[in-house]
Amino acid sequence: MTHALRLAARGLGNVWPNPAVGCVLVRDGVVVGRGWTQPGGRPHAEVRALQQAGALAEGATAYVTLEPCAHHGHTPPCATALIAAKVARVVTALTDPDPRVSGKGHAMLRAAGIAVTEGVLTAEATHLNAGFLKRVTQGLPFVTLKLAASLDGRTATATGESRWITGPEARRKVHAMRLSHDAVMVGSGTALADDPDLTVRDMGAVRQPVRIVLDRILKHSPESRLGRTAKAHPVWLLHSPAAPQSAQSAWQATGATLIEVPETNGYLDLKAALQIIAGKGLTRILSEGGSTVAAALLKAGLVDELALFSGAVLIGGDGHSSLGTLDLELLGSAQRPRLDQLQKIGADTYSLWSLN
Fold first, then answer.
1. Residue pLDDT, tens place only, 192-210
2. What CA–CA distances, in Å, run from 37 to 17, 237, 257?
3. Which pTM was predicted?
4. How far apart are CA 76 and CA 227, in angstroms?
5. Which of 201, 229, 228, 196 is nearest to 213 (CA)?
6. Is 305 a catalytic residue?
7. Fewer CB atoms inside 10 Å of the end CB: C or N, the chain?
């Protein structure tokens, strides 16, 4: 199952709206087939493993990180494929919460006389597919908030200079994080200040994440890097009903997708925004700024993980803060994340904190 989980991780950022699943087939102590969900969500992991095993799948044990699907979608049920291959046993880590499956896959296998063992490495599988599970059960994507700041919590000098607070090793890790998320999200302030392209670079031919800009009245220019590359890699502009029609038309001409989001007190309703994009299939969002969006997500309780890159530099109190105001009056009311990872990257430090 550990091997199956490692295979499943290869699909993160590539398989939405499907879960990232891994499958390993073992017969007489030998791995005869393995597979993981392919880009775009199909073929499924079990199908890939069965194709590789061929006739050797008969009598084998299948280790699958999520309950095999039991419904007809774009492909037949994986539970049916396992039954047809005459596997002897299926071991799973998680029951699929999708109402179309939710125990039905396990029941189909047992009804066919296949031994089923559930709950192996459940915690690890839950963490791996946290995005899919949250989308199905809560209608929201899993949100990782990435902050890159100096040791004293600043993202730029007083003049706005910010390149580079962290070194090349840390920046490469950020690209790896983009690769494992369905989408990268920034606010209009960051888009205007940095003119980013938000793609994964220097990692070969990869499926690029959806690039999302929270831009209430579409201030960001269609002539920007995002606008010029919208036909090559997806760009979603989340805007309010107040966005000028001329700006909407200009962005639509670039090939970008425009998504209207309700307002609350003159700002985009972030929970509604995340619910809308979850409804479109996104499961894992990497929010890369800026300070206003970061604070708003934290205040709304919408951040699941905080990925903090601490650059080996001191900027001082006249620099730009990594976070906007949280309206905090009492220390007892402050959020207290739990440290999950700590790593030295080049001259910098990376830490991963859990908030939920």
1. 988 999 999 888 878 899 9
2. 11, 28, 26
3. 0.91
4. 39
5. 196
6. no
7. C
